Amino acid sequence: MSNKRDYYEVLNVSRTASKEEIKDAYRKLALQYPPDRNKAPDAEERFKDISEAYAVLSDDEKKAQYDQLGHAGFDQRYTTEDIFRGADFESIFRDSGFGFGLRDVFSIFFGDRGFSQREIRGRDLGYELEITLEEAANGAEKSIEILRTEKCDVCKGNGAAPNTSPKPCPRCNGEGRIQSTTRNGFGVFVRVAQCPTCGGRGKIIDKPCLKCKGSGITERERKITIKIPPGIDEGYQLRLAGEGEITSEQGSPGDLYVLIHIAPHQHFKRYEDDLLYNLEVGFAQAALGTEATVPTLEGNTTIRIQPGTQPGQIIRLRGKGMPRFRGYGRGDMQVRVDISVPKKLTTQQRTLLEQLAKEFDENIRPKGYRLKL
Ligand SMILES: [Zn+2]
Ligand SMILES: [Zn+2]
Description:
Layout: H1 7-11, H2 19-32, H3 41-57, H4 60-77, H5 80-84, H6 90-95, H7 102-110, H8 115-119, E1 125-131, H9 133-138, E2 140-151, E3 167-168, E4 177-184, E5 187-194, E6 203-204, E7 217-228, E8 237-240, E9 256-262, E10 269-271, E11 274-282, H10 283-288, E12 290-296, E13 299-305, E14 314-317, E15 333-340, H11 347-359
Parallel strand pairs: 1-9, 11-15
Antiparallel strand pairs: 2-7, 3-6, 4-5, 8-9, 10-11, 12-13, 14-15
Helix pairs in contact: 2-3
One zinc ion is lined by residues 169, 171-172, 176, 195, 197-198, 202.
């Protein structure tokens, strides 16, 4: 069980309070408990509580989750960083005449490790992968190679040459930021700015690592295994969380998005979960009925062509299509019957067809007739 107080209680609003009411309640309380970490530790605690409650209740999705799950369930799903991601503090403090925003609220929560570095989530990467229809049907594991930036493996990301280590920045005492306190009619506010000496890193590197030139980040070729779920379709995008780039030494990696293309197949076209196959049979076969061999994903199978089968008629092979993506069962195979018409005839064939035409009372041109154009 969580021992946190109910967010609505913290802001002293009802469960049906509107967005504006929530914002107003927070604004009033924030001015009552200004975030002064040096002089009033209680106020800081209170400020943290109300800011967290506001971050959740001002966000439709988080509010809905909180309403549904309560504290215990909500806290399992969201880290403190998640809670604050995207929260709008700027407009509240701007309206009140302060230059105080999310970054500053973050610095109060996360202290010395700093918002600026933690905030930086690395770049997402994209990759286009072509697979065969069989791989799409059965699922597959594919290996790809991507070039991405990662933590430098020589210095383990700290940027210093082997057997040396970075020193804390003397100007900011390793905090990466410099604080100044301002006092005004509403209270005492702490302004935080990035340290210009160390550029916010909080450390000074005398002998930089040669591989990453002190940045702690290097580019690397990486082999990544991708699991293709059965039934995947053209244009689907798989997300591999955390397989993107790291772009700052304390930041988290971005994601890798793999866009799936399915190579054209020699036999089949795909329509949703069905496979389409064109079968050519002769006129006599279609009229008299026959058996025909057709390919499936599992190899050849024999199907019956009923006497009197018409051009364009579809024969459905149940369950011989693609597996349903993230579902159960499979689509069908649709065999479309085409009637092939011979382009050249032997004398014997011609004679037989002419007899047949006569039998059907079909009008045909006599031999040697030239169509006048
Ligand atoms: Zn390095
Ligand atoms: Zn510094």
